[in-house]
Amino acid sequence: MSRPLTPIGLWLVLSATAPVYAIDRAMTQVIETGSGTSSTPDTTLSASELARARAWGLSAMEWQRYQLLMQGIRGSISPSTISPIEVLGIHARDAAERQRYAEAWARAMHEDVDRILAFQHAYDVAGKHLYPNEPLIDINRLPGKTDGTSAFQSSDRLLFFARPACPVCDVMLKKLLMRIDEVSGIDIYLTDVAPGDDVAVRDWASAHQLDPERVRSRRITLNHDGGALDSLTSGQGEVPYLLRRRGEDLSQLRASDL
């Protein structure tokens, strides 16, 4: 029986980039010192760049440093959607700077979750108002499993990436839980949750009535995504996203496979 992809296991996946540390340090030093004779970097930015910097709460100097870092190792190994705050935080020059960017990112994520939940609530209200006699998603109309060969083996482990306030994720989760006895377990990874916010993960699990006994026995595990989906899909995966782990092999499954 294969073991679940635990947070430690994810660290091992992500740590494959460790050999570039020396290159990253060298690139950071070049960015900080510059290669010309002037010790003062050119901070001239276009109007659009200044607008984007202000949107992220960054100065012109910080935005230029972010751009230079993305020209180095960071731009080669991270998805293009990585935020400027994350880039600057990863390449922080001391603990105080790292903490400042971490707090800025935590505030940004907290505010974004509030926006997402507010819009989801408005969407739910609108749906009930416009279509009072219709379910939001009719699960019986989704493709189901056929009489052919099952997509699962008893030793398989399923990795399910979801996010809060995602009706399609909820439907897929319901179908997965109906088939949990056919596999060794399901590892759930939540995106769009602030790093380390275990309360949000527990609240999500409670709202979806996950069996506590299955969680205790690790038939179901609850995890922060922490960049795992981007790492496993080279930044191409979008939730809901389902992977089947069979031995050392990972393969994507579709909703029609359930």
- Report mean pLDDT, rounded to a whole number: 80
Specify the helix fraction band: 40-55%
Shape: globular
Structural class of the helices, strands and pairings?
alpha/beta
* DSSP strand content: 5-15%
Distance between the termini: 21 Å
Biggest sheet: strands side by side, in what order? 3-2-1-4-5
Question: How many strands in all?
Answer: 5
User: Which stretches are low in confidence, meaning pLDDT under 50 for 5 or more residues running?
Assistant: 1-42
Structural description of this entry:
The chain is α/β, with parallel strands linked by helices and 258 residues long. It has two domains: 17-134, no CATH class; 141-257, Glutaredoxin (3-Layer(aba) Sandwich). 47% of the residues lie in helices and 11% in strands. It contains eleven helices and five strands. It has helices at residues 7-14, 21-33, 47-55, 60-70, 73-77, 84-90, 95-130, 167-177, 198-207, 212-216, 228-233; strands at 157-162, 185-190, 220-224, 241-246, 249-253. A five-stranded mixed sheet has the order 3-2-1-4-5. Strand 4 (241-246) and strand 5 form a beta hairpin. Helix 4 (60-70) crosses helix 6 and helix 6 runs antiparallel to helix 7. The longest helix is centred in the middle third of the chain and has 36 residues, at 95-130. It is globular, with a radius of gyration of 22 Å. The model is unreliable at 1-42 (pLDDT under 50).
